[in-house]
């Protein structure tokens, strides 16, 4: 999946089926595991007030939203931005339900039909860290991502944090395999084959790369409570 979009919403409350609405949408693009500057962000006039509890979380007032576009006015821009992308959401069921209700009001197909797929980072985090807190704040702390500015929830800033969390959570999934094929007509494995192979260059890691590697191992050791197999194997290897 070359293009991914990290999405977050803020809403007037917790229950889309009882009339709560989307009031902010923020999206961050990831291309080939790199965050780009191609963001999508809109405040939305929800045409109703936020619940007191929701207002304490996002701090976005009805007065601020009064002159903002309605959801129907930004829908086509949003769907064009999401087209063909895998969408990454923390607690996807919540945001997708709200977006589906908004799309349903406009007689449009459900959210899942406007993107390639939906990836739920909350579900994935629970599989990686069973029994632990897996809120966005907790994951930022676990992966040492600075979230000190997050005093209130905001869709675009939270999407940016989640993009970094996602890249950290999935860093071990990058394929390191190199496929090697024997030349056509080669029997393979003979002395002549060995002689024909060019000598491989061995590139030593730089001091900066070694320091970065040790930082990764420190994180693994912290997460596994000292049971980092890489370091255990290195300690037991013959010198």
Give keywords.
alpha/beta; 239 residues; 6 strands; Nucleotidyltransferase, domain 5; 2 domains; 6-stranded mixed β-sheet; 41% helix
Give a quick summary of the entry:
By secondary structure, the protein is an alpha/beta fold. Helix content is 41%, strand content 14%. The protein folds into 2 domains: 3-172, 2-Layer Sandwich (Nucleotidyltransferase, domain 5), CATH 3.30.420; 209-239, no CATH class.
**Unreliably modeled segments:** 174-193
Query: Helicity level, as a percent range?
Result: 40-55%
Q: Major β-sheet, in short?
A: 6 strands, mixed
CATH class of the largest domain: Alpha Beta
**What is the count of structural domains?**
2
The CATH topology of the largest domain turns out to be Nucleotidyltransferase, domain 5
Strand content: 5-15%
Q: Could you report the average pLDDT, rounded to the nearest whole number? A: 85
Shape: elongated
Question: Going by CATH, what is the homologous superfamily of the largest domain?
Answer: Ribonuclease H-like superfamily/Ribonuclease H
Instruction: Decide which structural class fits the backbone.
Output: alpha/beta
By CATH, the architecture of the largest domain is named: 2-Layer Sandwich
How far apart, in Å, are the first and last alpha carbons?
Answer: 42 Å
- List the helices and strands in order: EEEEHHHEHEHHHHHH
Global Rg: 24 Å
């Amino acid at each position: 999946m070359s293009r991914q979009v990290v999405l977050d919403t803020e809403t007037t409350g917790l229950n889309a089926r009882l009339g709560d609405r989307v009031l902010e949408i923020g999206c961050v693009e990831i291309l080939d595991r790199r965050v780009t500057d191609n963001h999508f962000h809109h405040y939305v006039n929800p045409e109703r007030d936020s619940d007191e509890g929701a207002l304490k979380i996002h701090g976005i007032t009805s007065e601020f939203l009064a002159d903002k576009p309605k959801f129907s006015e930004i829908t086509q821009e949003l769907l064009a931005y999401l087209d063909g992308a895998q969408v990454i959401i923390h607690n996807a069921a919540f945001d997708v339900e709200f977006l589906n209700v908004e799309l349903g009001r406009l007689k449009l197909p459900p959210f899942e039909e406007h993107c390639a797929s939906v990836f739920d980072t909350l579900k994935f985090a629970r599989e990686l860290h069973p029994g632990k807190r897996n809120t966005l704040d907790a994951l930022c702390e676990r992966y040492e991502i600075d979230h000190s500015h997050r005093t209130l929830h905001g869709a675009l800033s939270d999407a940016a944090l989640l993009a970094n969390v996602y890249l950290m959570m999935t860093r071990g999934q990058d394929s390191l395999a190199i496929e090697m094929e024997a030349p056509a007509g080669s029997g393979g494995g003979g002395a002549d084959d060995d002689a024909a192979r060019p000598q491989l260059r061995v590139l030593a890691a730089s001091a900066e790369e070694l320091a970065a590697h040790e930082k990764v191992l420190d994180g693994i050791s912290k997460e596994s409570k000292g049971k980092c197999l890489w370091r255990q194997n290195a300690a037991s290897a013959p010198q």
